[in-house]
């Protein structure tokens, strides 16, 4: 039985409040995975999966509630048995059931379940017949051709598995930004309690709002470092200390995320922040610039000879180099230094600029909440309008709507709009783009909607020319408003479509439709560079949550981060418009 560092620690050291909702959910997920590997009762498996979802979506911290002696509130899908399990996990940091299952099934196999194309039966066979237990072993077995020879597997599946596992091995170590955020926030809150910590910031790719982060780089400004280091090393979620010294440490959290910490003097805080925010390329470029000006830039400040001329704040560092302060999201050595020199930095979009969201689901298809609940949550998130865009009929796994069901939903939205205060629902659909570029619902129905969001959910592997033609054809449809998640990638799971994106952008420009920046953590699609290309062509970007539950509107902030990385300003983004302005735009989309 494998023991992580945490479990081998004496129980007394385990902090009572050490597990957050995500941690509890992860244990339930693992139990479900292990049960699945054992071919256990599907209802039991589903119960654990639902429980995981329910716990994850619950906002107050369950361990804190329990720790303060409060009753666990009734959560959907969680009966007495699962509630008792939650108590057990909070009390012990683990679950006896999980430990028992881990002894029965090699837990490494769970990772194989996450490889697209592998279900529990195939995973079991690969394990028993080829001894394959890890993604690396799966990779090697596929590469050597052994999987193709297994009865019922074949060459085609082998190739597919090889591609999928290569992707997993490559990207598995990076975490989507939004999934790292709760940990980062918690760590920030924790470090701010340290005695003498004047400033605490997560720098690195996290601060630059990259779509994924390799690790978290924390910078703390403090007069003395010893107390800070001591406090940091007692962070309850640390699984393993990789290295530690007087002013720096690297640790691995139980979630697998690495954290690098640096403690620095207040006078050098700005310079250190510039250094550790990166990117590496940006750092190299501004250091070269400093040299050209007879200065030296380091993580300790800007120096002329021995004399430090700047370093306390980031603004002072950039000023000393003759530059306006560059927002972290732009620091990629992609023209930002020249723009900062000439006073031509963009006035980047802010989260508050978003007035609405044009892509969201309800219980009618694969969402978790009712129209009313989604509307209230969008309003609470500060939005003035929300388009309901459930799936269309072809997407059977999501219970896509046919024409009748959609017409009924439209009526319900009309009625609801008469009752709702502070938010307006728009009538939309996320319609499947079929293989030939047709849309999955008849024109008469689409014509009655406020907007049509088109999306590719099938035939991901079409060759480039056909895929491009398919999407262009869909966009040219007379009822088409927004191309959803244009590249179709799922971080760590599915590669992006092979499509000629400049052609798609040009097509959107001709057609006068918008492209989506889908802010789901695993999608973040379009990418930053594409947003910038669209902006240059005058094609509006729409930042959508693609919310499937009320909590998902918080993801909009990461979409805004990615849009900022793409140099977008308020005017470049469709859903910064007021509702009357938006309605005008929508009207002229239908031709
Ligand atoms: P990540 O963690 O892969 O998502 O990307 P970053 O950008 O957070 O990179 P990381 O964690 O390796 O380093 C954080 C920052 O520290 C990086 O953005 C710039 C700075 N840095 C690290 N190593 C070097 C280096 O070798 N040269 C320079 N100029 N800067 C570095
Ligand atoms: Ca990093
Ligand atoms: Ca790092």
- State the distance separating the first and last CA atoms: 64 Å
Largest sheet: 7 strands, parallel
Strand neighbour order, sheet with most strands: 11-12-13-14-15-16-17
How helix-rich are the residues, as a percent range?
40-55%
Q: In the CATH classification, which architecture of the largest domain applies?
A: Alpha-Beta Barrel
The CATH top-level class label of the largest domain: Alpha Beta
Structure characteristics:
single chain; 591 residues; alpha/beta; DNA polymerase, domain 1; Beta Polymerase, domain 2; 4 domains; 26 helices; globular; binds 2'-deoxyguanosine-5'-triphosphate; binds calcium ion
Describe this structure in words.
By secondary structure, this protein is an alpha/beta fold. The chain folds into four domains: 11-104, DNA polymerase, domain 1; 109-169, 5' to 3' exonuclease, C-terminal subdomain (DNA polymerase, domain 1), CATH 1.10.150; 175-342, Beta Polymerase, domain 2 (2-Layer Sandwich); 351-589, Metal-dependent hydrolases (TIM Barrel, Alpha-Beta Barrel). The chain is built from 26 helices and 17 strands. The strands form four sheets. It has a seven-stranded parallel β-sheet with strand order 11-12-13-14-15-16-17. Mean pLDDT is 92; it is low at 1-17. The structure holds 2'-deoxyguanosine-5'-triphosphate (DGT) and calcium ion (2 copies). One calcium ion is lined by residues 204-205, 213-215, 217. One calcium ion (CA) binds at residues 204, 215, 217, 260.
